[in-house]
From TrEMBL, chain A:
WD repeats lie at residues 175-216, 217-250. This is Uncharacterized protein. It is found in: Cytoplasm. It holds the Pfam family WD40. The lineage of its organism: Eukaryota, Fungi, Dikarya, Ascomycota, Saccharomycotina. It comes from Torulaspora globosa. Belongs to the WD repeat WDR6 family. The keyword Protein transport does not apply. Keywords: Cytoplasm, Repeat, tRNA processing, WD repeat.
From TrEMBL, chain B:
Keywords: Cytoplasm, Methyltransferase, S-adenosyl-L-methionine, Transferase, tRNA processing. Residues 21-205 form the Ribosomal RNA methyltransferase FtsJ domain. It comes from Torulaspora globosa. GO terms for molecular function: tRNA (guanosine(34)-2'-O)-methyltransferase activity. It is found in: Cytoplasm. The gene is TRM7. This is Putative tRNA (cytidine(32)/guanosine(34)-2'-O)-methyltransferase. The lineage of its organism: Eukaryota, Fungi, Dikarya, Ascomycota, Saccharomycotina.
Length: 999, 308
């Protein structure tokens, strides 16, 4: 077994020049944060995770975690990929470590409030402690002021903070006031302050000299794990279980010192941010969390300084341009350009703001656009379009610097008596399409074409408007115009055949208003478009625009929360969404799952526009009739050095073994955090790419499994079971996945879990039967009809009242069996052949379903029941022997591994089962997963004791041949795929994910 | 930990209320006893219940030890927890941290020079989510309990403690093996199969002959056990080495017909069960006073919003 890669909780992180050192389990990773390149990866410890990193003045490196410590030089990490042989063990859990002032000694604070002092080679020198204060610590820190002044801060469970002088071994202060265990405590480098946090979720600032409490900072909504002073001890950054990182300012007003929360950043996925560091300029924060993400947040760019945010009142604009303001006159519309802003008022006055000069200019007044106007622009062409409700249009084109108007067109569309909507889009030939819509459902949609260089009118198209259609957004691709509407509807028009009826797609998702349509890429003769809906749904649809137009939804998902106003793929292929949530406007990276920025603007009900160029986003909006311009610089460096995986336990993993994608494999993870991720693994390096995070489940997942080349099933509590279709075409930049069908539920009980499922396809590989087992002991059998896309129940019953953990559907000697494992440790066999009409092909054991009259039948009595384990069977795998016997491998909560052989007794036609092998102490804890590999000659098991074990299977006996410790806690799932004759790749999940090569 | 509606549907929760226990945990001890019968020994007189709040184990102990009101001379139950506990008949309660050596000294004082027959600990620290740290703290809690057991147990006595079967559990099994003749990992059916929780049942207290347990207020637990376990007398800093590990036999406790704590029971299941009352039940445990009470209060008032 060889570890190719590991992804999981990262507990600490450090900036050093252009580099970021981040812990990753027992490995130390080193990134260049400008390029995002992973420069080094070095194994540090045998078993322990790295909990702390210190870099000494002269390049000394101190790493610690658990009872392990390693003292080395940064140079060693550059030259070596493994430093494990230099690992030292300490008597106790190391809470904190630090280099001495001269750098030639190391202090280690252990969990019983004892400091071990050793030299650079890890040789013990002496112990220091505080008399009779040896109860357990959750946190602590060491501050080195000089060669002989060293302060220890020890965070206890019940006794507050013990601040003591190391060499004097005397208490300096016992800081009391927090409720609950102290989770972090630190001193500012200048010796002014102590900052601490505890289970009470507050941050407390203390005067180090007097021990007096100065201020209490509230804000975090869960426990705080780490604090760091920066900006010469004038600011503090905190990270928490609530997934945020917050910046606090220490404000001195007279004699009062206050801790003021300055900014909040959502940085990690549920839940826990562990590590934090600030770079030497105080402008960048790096955080690491349980999701394994290494996130860089730019503080400097979001501070809301003058250059970043501007606000103009209407009065100010009129004042500055010396134009008299009419009573009740307000801004009605605007568009942002490189040179600045163009805005129109409610009396039809048009103003221009030059962003470089910060000056307003009055351009013109057009009475046609008073009282009602719609404004749109094409920023990269410097073109703005105003429309009113009587079919009038005013088009203006500006010079690049905004100084001159280079083209101007006024146009009246006489075909429509009233126009209530106007949408515009630049097409591929650099012409501008303007869509006008009247409120009358019988009126045509009118589309006008203008030259973008001269603004001359080129063409007019008339389109029939579908029923129930209110246009909301448009896109143009080749000669097709796609118009989005309310009622989650979309119409596709051919600009070359305007007389033909549109191709209409209705009920794309459960939402209402379609907010954006964007061409994504082409796939053969089809085109892919992303479509967003204000209610949070987004889809990718594949539209074939040839003669017989057709479409398919190939991707469906929903954002975390809030309103979705639009989305697009960026240069790196990441899907970027934006919209509103409560009082915030947000831009979110949906692929990597992090917030790019958010801004408090007051909420969704306002005029706003987002525009972007390669360097920045500009959000312009109106709040209380004032106009606000907020610019966010796009990060010049990478925002994530590693995007991370799930922040909570991965409960199941399934690899698409039927076919490869992009020289690797697609796989799916099902997590306790209620999401699933569709990812890709590159088998040589173990490198992961995350494509999508699916949020359809509302409860923590139990299982997921690919059932053929394109379909996958996932299940969880609330009786949720979803059938997914994965569209993975080699010519596409990424795979897509959409929900195909949902299994009917029987009750509203939120605790009712579908624990497992198994399927058997018919011989055509289209329809399948599926067994599901439940936490209330229910057993059900379903038929999935491919053509009708429907699940129908064909059989149901109960085992007893205990929870069922696994299920298998197997054909044994022309009989169909359902085998389940309850929490009572038995394997229970049901012969269901008589309950469902089917034929079994004796050659390949495949099924042909008869004319299934979908009668619901009762589960028959079980054929056989055999106790294999003392308690729950957690995992099961099986193989059919050539003689027709079924060999079942089971791993239990009782630490044991069993082999059961089941065969059909020829005379009684009943199942006979026997336990062929039983390894009582197969692991030190629950065995959570097992996978047969190498033609069922080997079995890989995982256990919560964090050990992977490889067993050989010969003559129905198990022999342990290899075992390897994994840093993944709650080790709960695995899947294997063979990459060549002799090599298998195992993906092991729990709190994190490991990629192991088995040869 | 707050009580979710899931807990309320839990049959053990209902049964606890029915039988007057303060927590569903009572059934864990009862089911362990079904298998090991350590509480059925008529000579059982003096017991210590560590990490005892809200007190359902103490209730079980009190009922077992004092069921026969006549023969109660020199019987004693001492219960210790960080949290306050409302009084239980025949139980002396102490509010203290069991990882603090001073607490152990106070318990020893309560017993005078008498030995105890049985020491148990159902303790669980606050979980941080850092699995290795949580498991370490849990093991330290067990070591503190074991330290007391070592000082107070009569030879042949029994020690029972809650464990989490994580990565270093085999190390703990091995250490227990130095002090007891029989060490078993037991899982009562009332403990959820999805949780790592189990109980280590150590029978026949029999410490190494050369080792004298001696409580010293200035010593940490680790120092206390130096010379007792092999490998525990390691220097403060030394080369990395594997620690001895051992897998204890596993024992599922409670009969197969007892309620399954992983199962989902519906309304009709409950009505069919005469044991379970149909009316709604008051919470079994008293509401606790969490350290983050003030934070919750601020949140409720909308003072912890994202707006800054
Ligand atoms: C699961 S509860 C015990 C339930 C108890 N056996 C019953 O049946 O009611 C765990 C208890 O351990 C206590 N505990 C945790 N750490 C402790 C410590 N260091 N000292 C004393 N008690 C502790 C907690 O306060 C909590 O009440």
């Amino acid at each position: 077994m060889e570890y190719l890669a590991h992804y999981g909780p990262s507990l600490c992180v450090k900036f050093h020049g252009d580099l970021v050192y981040a812990a990753n389990g027992p490995f130390l990773h080193c990134y260049n944060y400008h390029t995002g390149e992973l420069k080094r990866r070095c194994r540090i410890f045998h078993r322990n995770k790295i909990h702390g990193i210190c870099i000494g003045k002269d390049g000394g490196l101190l790493l610690y975690g658990g009872n392990s410590v390693l003292i080395a030089d940064l140079q060693d990490v550059n030259e070596r990929t493994c430093l494990m042989e230099r690992e030292k063990s300490v008597n106790g859990w190391i809470i904190s470590g630090e280099f001495s002032y001269s750098g030639d000694q190391v202090y280690l604070l252990t969990s019983y409030n004892k400091v071990i002092i050793c030299d650079k080679f890890g040789r013990f020198m002496m112990n220091k402690s505080l008399r009779e204060e040896k109860s357990i610590l959750y946190s602590g820190s060491i501050t080195v002021y000089s060669q002989d002044k060293v302060y220890i801060n020890a965070g206890t469970v019940m006794g507050g903070i013990l601040l003591w002088d190391l060499y004097a071994e005397k208490m300096v202060h016992n800081l009391k006031g927090h409720e609950g265990s102290i989770f972090f405590v630190t001193e500012s480098a200048d010796g002014r302050y102590v900052a601490s946090c505890s289970d009470d979720r507050s941050i407390r600032l203390w005067d180090l000299r007097t021990g007096e409490l100065l201020s209490v900072g509230w804000g975090h909504t869960a426990r705080i794990w780490n604090l760091k002073f920066f900006d010469s001890g004038n600011r503090i950054v905190s990270v928490s279980e609530d997934c945020t990182c917050r910046v606090w300012e220490i404000c001195q007003r007279g004699n009062n010192i206050d801790l003021i929360q300055q900014n909040i950043y959502e940085v990690h996925l549920t839940k826990n941010v562990w590590g934090v560091d600030v770079d030497s300029t105080g402008r960048k924060v790096v955080t690491t969390g349980n999701d394994g993400r290494i996130k860089i947040t730019n503080l400097g760019d979001q501070l809301g300084t003058e250059e970043e945010q501007k606000c103009y009142t209407v009065e100010e604009i009129f004042d500055r341009t010396n134009v008299p303001l009419e009573k009740g006159e307000i801004i009605k519309g605007f568009e942002w350009f490189d040179f600045g802003l163009v805005a129109i008022t409610s009396t039809g006055k048009i103003f221009l703001l030059s962003s470089t000069k910060d000056s307003w200019i009055y351009l013109t007044k057009n009475d046609k656009f008073s009282s009602y106007s719609i404004t749109h622009g094409v920023p990269d062409e410097n073109v703005i379009v105003f429309a009113n409700n009587r079919g009038d249009l005013l088009l203006l084109k500006f010079s690049d610097d905004g100084e001159r108007i280079v083209a101007k067109t006024e146009y009246h569309c006489s075909n429509l008596s009233k126009t209530t909507n106007c949408l515009i889009r630049k097409d591929s030939s650099s012409a501008l399409l303007v869509l006008l819509e009247s409120p009358n459902p019988r009126d045509h949609l009118v589309c006008l074409k203008f030259s973008l260089s001269t603004l001359t009118h080129l063409d007019t198209y008339h389109f029939t408007k579908p029923a129930n259609f209110v246009s909301t957004c448009i896109d143009v691709h080749q000669n097709f115009l796609l118009i989005g509407s309310r009622f989650s509807t979309l119409a596709v028009y051919d600009l070359t055949a305007t007389a033909s009826m549109p191709y209409v797609i209705r009920n794309l998702n459960p939402g209402d208003t379609t907010t954006s349509i964007k061409h994504v890429e082409d796939q053969g003769s089809s085109s892919l478009f992303s479509v967003t809906n204000r209610d949070g749904y987004y889809n990718i649809i594949k539209v074939n625009l040839t003669q017989d137009a057709s479409h398919r939804i190939i991707h469906s998902n929903k954002i975390v929360r809030g309103f979705l106003e639009g989305a697009d793929f960026d240069d790196r292929g990441d899907f970027i969404t934006f919209g509103f949530k409560s009082s915030l406007f947000y831009v979110y990276n949906e692929t990597a799952c992090y917030e790019v920025f958010s801004h408090i603007c007051g909420g969704a009900h306002r005029q706003w526009k987002l525009s972007q160029d390669s360097k920045s986003y500009t959000l312009v909006y109106i709040k209380a009739s004032d106009i606000y311009i907020k610019r966010f610089k796009k990060a010049a460096t990478r925002e994530t050095l590693f995007a991370g995986i799930h922040g909570r336990e991965i409960r199941d993993i399934t690899v698409q073994k039927h076919r490869k994608f992009n020289d690797g494999f697609l796989f799916c993870t099902a997590s306790e955090d209620t999401t699933m991720k569709l990812m890709h693994i590159e088998p040589k390096s173990g490198r992961l790419t995350n494509y999508w995070t699916q949020r359809k489940h509302v409860s923590g997942l139990q299982r997921c499994q690919f059932i053929n080349e394109t379909l996958m099933i996932s299940c969880s509590a609330r009786e949720e079971l979803f059938l997914w279709e994965i569209d993975a075409q080699a010519e596409c930049s990424r795979p897509y996945m959409t929900l195909r069908q949902t299994l009917p539920t029987s009750s509203g009980n939120p605790d009712l879990r579908i624990m497992d499922f198994d399927v058997k396809f018919d011989s055509k590989g289209e329809n399948f039967i599926m067994a599901t087992v439940y936490s209330d002991s229910a057993i059900k059998l379903w038929l999935y009809n491919h053509k009708e896309n429907s699940f129908s129940l064909i059989l149901s019953g109960h085992y007893k009242t205990c929870c069922l953990l696994n299920v298998l559907l197997e054909v044994l000697r022309d009989q169909l069996y359902l085998i389940t494992s309850p929490t009572d440790g038995h394997l229970v066999y049901y012969n269901i052949s008589n309950q469902i009409p089917f034929k079994i092909d004796v050659d390949d054991n495949s099924l042909t379903f008869g004319d299934l009259k979908l009668c619901e039948s009762e589960l028959p009595e079980f054929d056989c029941k055999l106790q294999v384990h003392q308690s729950g069977i957690k995992t099961i795998d099986s193989v059919m022997k050539t003689n027709g016997d079924l060999v079942i491998f089971t791993g239990g909560d009782d630490n044991a591994l069993g082999i059961t052989v089941a065969s059909v007794n020829k005379s009684t036609a009943k199942i006979c089962a026997r336990v062929a092998d039983f390894q009582e102490k197969a692991a030190a804890s629950t065995i959570t997963s097992c996978n047969l590999i190498c033609n069922a000659t080997k079995l890989l098991t995982t256990s919560v004791d964090q050990t992977l074990r490889l067993w050989s299977v010969t003559e129905e006996k198990l022999v342990l041949i290899d075992s390897s410790y994994t840093t993944i806690a709650d080790t709960g799932s695995s899947d294997c795929v063979s990459i060549d004759e002799s090599t298998n790749l195992a993906l092991v999940g729990g709190v994190g994910l490991s990629v192991v090569q088995l040869s | 930990m707050g009580k979710s509606s899931k807990d309320k549907r839990d049959l053990y929760y209902r049964k606890a209320k029915e039988q007057g226990y303060r927590a569903r945990s009572a059934f864990k001890l009862l089911q362990l006893n079904d298998e090991f019968h350590f509480l059925d020994d008529p000579s059982l007189k003096r017991v210590v219940d560590l990490c005892a709040a809200p007190g359902s184990w103490s209730q079980v102990l009190s009922r077992k030890l004092f069921q026969d009101e006549r023969a109660t001379a020199d019987r004693k139950i001492v219960a210790v927890d960080l949290q306050t506990m409302s009084p239980i008949d025949h139980v002396t309660t102490l509010q203290a941290d069991i990882t603090h050596p001073r607490t152990l000294a106070r318990i020893l004082e309560l017993f005078g020079d008498q030995k105890a027959d049985f020491v148990c600990s159902d303790g669980a620290p606050d979980v941080t989510g850092l699995h290795d740290l949580d498991e370490y703290v849990q093991q330290q809690l067990i070591m503190s309990a074991l330290q007391l057991a070592a000082c107070i147990l009569k030879p042949g006595g029994t020690f029972v403690a809650k464990i989490f079967r994580g990565r270093d559990i085999d190390m703990l099994y091995s250490q227990m093996g130095y002090l007891f003749d029989r060490v078993t990992c037991a899982k009562p059916r009332s403990s959820r199969g999805t949780s790592l929780e189990a109980f280590i049942v150590c029978q026949q207290y029999n410490p190494p002959s050369g080792w004298q347990p001696r409580l010293d207020l200035d010593q940490s637990v680790q120092e206390f056990f130096q010379g007792c376990f092999r490998g525990s007398d390691s220097p403060d800093v030394g080369p990395w080495h594997e620690t001895p590990r051992d897998i204890a036999p596993f024992m599922a406790c409670g009969s197969l017909d007892s309620f399954d704590s992983d199962a989902t029971y519906h309304g009709q299941d409950l009505q069919g069960d005469s044991d379970v009352p149909r009316r709604s039940l008051d919470p079994v445990q008293q509401p606790t006073n969490p350290p983050y009470k003030q934070a919750l209060e601020l949140k409720r008032k909308g003072k912890l919003t994202r707006a800054v």
